[in-house]
Structures are given as C-alpha cells and as structure tokens.
Model the fold of this input.
Amino acid sequence: MSAPIIEVKDLKTYFQTPKGIAKSVDGVSFSIPRGGTFALVGESGCGKSVTALSLIQLVPEPAGYIAGGEILLNGKDIISLTESEKRNIRGNKISMIFQEPMTSLNPVFTIGDQIMETIRLHQGKTKKEAQEIAIDMFRKVGLPNPEAMINEYPHRLSGGMRQRIMIAIALACKPDLLIADEPTTALDVTIQDQILKLINELKASMGTAVLLITHNLALVYQNAETVGVMYAGKIAEMASTKDLFRNPMHPYTVKLLRSIPGGKKRGKALDTIIGTVPPATSYPLGCHFAGRCPREMEGCATIEPPLAERAPGHLVACHLHDPEFMNKPYSKPIRQEPDKLSPLATPFKDREIILEVKNLKTYYPIRKGLLKRVVGNVAAVDGIDLSIRQGSTLALVGESGCGKTTAGKSIIQLIRPTEGEILFRNNDLARLGDRELKKYRSLIQIIFQDPYSSLNPRLMVKDTIEEGLKTLKPDMGKEARMKRIASTLERVGLVPEMMYRYPHEFSGGQRQRIGIARALAVDPEFIVCDEAVSALDVSVQAQILNLLKSIQRDFGLSFLFITHDLSVVEYIADEVAVMYAGKIVERNRTEEIFSNPQHDYTKKLLSAIPRIDESLVNAWKLPGHH
Ligand code: SF4
Done:
C-alpha cells in the first residue's frame, strides 16, 4: 500500500463548555493512502465533523482546541504550523466540502470571483486560465449554463446548486486530501451519483485521498475502501468496507446497519437503538456505548474496551470479543428480533379510495418590470392524476423542482391549485371556500421535513398542539384537550410531562415526534409527509418510520409520502408515483416500480441509488458469546 497522505494519531479535540470539558474527539487514529477513501460513519454528535475540522485546522477557537495527538500530512505534522502556513494548506493541500454550503460562500461576491480567487491564489494561474478552469469545473459538477454561472451570486441559487459550487471550488485546486462532510445529503440522487463519480475520478487521476463523512451507509459501501464507525468521540470499529459490511463486529455497527430501510425490510419493524448519544461532557467511564447496548455485560460501563484487532485488519472496541469477558452475564435480557408489523386486514385492492386527484394544475405567475406585471406562468404541477386508498401509502418521488412539494401543498389546499379536482371522500376541496374547507382541515394534516422550523420556539409543546385543537376541534373543552395532548404524546413515544417543555429542549427525533403528535391530535384520516424523515440520522429515521407505520395501522391513516429517498419509499410505500417536470411519468405498486421500471426517468433514478448487496442485509446479527 502506498504511503499515507494523511495519518491521524490519537487525536484529541476538546471544547471548554459551561458544563465542563467536552471530549468531542477522544483519541482517534486512522490513515488514508494516496487515492484511497476512508469513511467515517455514526450518528450526529459522535465527533465525525469535529474530526474533519481538526484535520483542516478549523476547530472553532477559543472554546475548541486540539488537546493531543498528531496529524501528519505527507509525513509532516500540521498541528504545530503557524497560522499563515495553515492557511496555505487549507484549500490547496486540504479542501473541505461542508454540509451547509450557504455558510461557506461569501454572499457579496459572485461565485465566479470566489472560485477564481482560490484557483489563482493556490495555482498561480492568470485570470483567463482561472476562468477556464472554473467553467470546466462547473460543467463537471453538473451546473447548467456554466459560462453564465460565473456571474451569479450565491443567494440567487438553490441549495443544491450552491452545494455543487462548493464542490467545484474544493476540487478546482486538486487537493491532496479532500474532506467531504455529508457532501451530497441535500442533493438529488442523480446529482449525488454524478458528484461521487467526479470525486472518484479525481482520486484515480490525481491520487487525492478522501475522507468521506456521511450517514448514508450505502454510499459508504459503494465508495470507500475503509470505514471507521465513530461513537461518542471514539472509533468503535474499523475495517475494510468489504469486511465491515460482511461481518460487522461491534453491536453499534450492527444496530446502525439494521436500521437502514429498504425493500428487504417491508412489512417488518426496523431495528432501532434506544436512547441517544451521550453528551461529550459526560461519557460513561467504560464503554461509551454502555447504556444503549443490547449486549451490555457486567463491567462494560466501568472498564473501557481497547480498540483491538479481532480479525485480520479488523479493529473492534468491544468486550464481547475479549476472552476475559467470555463468561460475564449480560446486564439485560436479550431482546427479541424486531416485530413483524401485522398488515391491515383489508387487502390493498379492496381498500376504499379516500382521495382522488384529477388533472391537478398549479401555476405560478412570472412577474416582470417595475409594476410586477404577470408576463407568463410556470407550471409547477402540470396536470397530475393520483388516488390514495384508505390505510395506504402513496409515495410521490422525483428530484428537486419537479413539483412534488407544490403538488402536496395543493392537495391539502395550503396552495390553491389553478385547475383540477381534489376529491376527498367525494368532496372537491378545490371548489370549497375557506369556511367550508375548515371542516376538512382536521381530517387532512401535514408533517414537515424540519420539525424545528415548523414548531414555534416560543410555544411550549402543549400550546403548539392545543392551538390546532382549539381551531379544528372548537367543541372540545379544556380538560378534554389536555387529556388528548397527553395521550397523543404518549402514543408517539414521548411522556406527557414533556408538554411543558419548549422545542429547543428536544432532540431532532423527538421534535419530529412532536410534529407527528400535532398532526395526530386532531383525528386526521390523511397525512402528507413532506420529506418527514429526510433530515434525521438513520437510527432516528428508523424509529420515526416505525412510528408512522404503527399509527397508520392503528388509525387506518392514509399517507402521501413526498420524498427523494428511494430506500425509504421501497420500505414504506404501497404505491409510487414518479414525478418529472410537473407531470407523473410512471405510477405503479412499489414492488413493480423497483423490479420492473418502465419509464426511462424512473430507470435513471433507480440506477443512481447507492445500494448494499442484498445478500448481506439478512446476515447482520448482533455478536454474542453465549
Ligand atoms: Fe460496549 Fe459492552 Fe456493548 Fe461491547 S458489549 S459495545 S463493550 S457495552
């Protein structure tokens, strides 16, 4: 194997906080060879991004600091460099693609200026040469009209486009090490595919080493040679990608893998991990996963397991693989495999159609000039037909800008459509006035992607849910409302006392549960889930998907599931409608869409999804010694 581009030895990155020292990265070691990809995976808050920031020497000071260890770039320690030497390395030898592109682009300069400055600064090119390289990079990352793009400002572009610009800037200088922190999370699957191909080309042609940080395990399976599973500041398991996916040895890795949705899991509850990652200020004394681990033994919480080689080239930090722990009893009874979700008694084809959409069109006016006169229309939704059966899930899939969110909002009348019928229990919602529509508002609800921005930060959970009840169930008295809030919170897996807390006191998964409780409290029959699980970690996503499935079964709810994540669709949907440029191009039962797609666009979408070899999926078993 070639000499490593980057070698990280026992890295410790700490933060001073009011609650004490947060050991976000607590003794992490790995190396990446020339042309290799090392992936770091794990839930949010495990220290992956802080590891990345440490490598690029951007740990936020003064609270954050590197407390120990070495980072060797081409054999030279970079921690002790002067600030100007570090600046020279950043963007030149080490580039980083961040999760949130808007924060890393300067809003007052054109994107052309920003990329050309980087190229000229680090590569000594003339302005004309830098412009040519910039246009070429824009083309490579799939930006439309790259020549015109040079003069655009960041705020005028969509999130996906800004992310591609960041990627173009990061790749333009052909760095030795590229750090990609959730580089494609916000992007459509076809663009994601294109970006990863581009990164892989760069690896092959330039020998760039890549540190890939992602929660998408299928992406790791297809793109990395080595994987480190990070948990609470430490590496829990590290192996070649092939070994790790074939034989995961740490309970945390197994639980993460088993929480991934997909076609193989249809009809079953997904595996989940209880609890949350402990705060970096208060890790358990021994194994950091103790408390959440289904195989915890006597001694796990107090004795730290070393990261030791338990199979050739396969490092694991878990006492289960230590002969000394062979006879220790488990602390908790072994839990059974996840429940099978019993299907609804009525077969799909016999279920009543609850909602029918006919020739739905929603146009947005294009306004120009000082007087903002309407000069034309954009057909966001251009004549779609859909029907949803009671107790069933229809997934509406397609890429950003295809009109799926507008379609969802038009169906529930958050946007009034331009034309068409929306028959809910045979009443055309599109023809109803606001007062008549109010009768249906409680029956038709929506759950959004980002529960934080859809919850009022100044309202306690109780008030948020009560607001809906007061408006939509005016006959309900105060006492009944409080009872309803408590029982709904319980139903979504929270405790009633939590109604007196504010949104910021909850984790992302809990906030999504509150969003579901808010919708569920008013007795809906039909819920639009607009990217409802897209922003969540895979372990939390599994809990929310299980919850949605179980409330669907218990209350006979129908879902319109709007998403760009096709592995979620394959798991949860009964039917799929594929949308492209405002129209539905294909619609069928889920199994048919995935096994026998007909339309070229559906085929293109499906072929771009990263997948884990299906034969491995059923083989992931928790390790155990007795
Ligand atoms: Fe940690 Fe013990 Fe579980 Fe291994 S078995 S992951 S050491 S708690």
About this structure: Residues 251, 287, 289-290, 293, 295-297, 300, 305, 318-320 surround iron/sulfur cluster (CB under 6 Å). The first helix runs from residue 48 to 55.
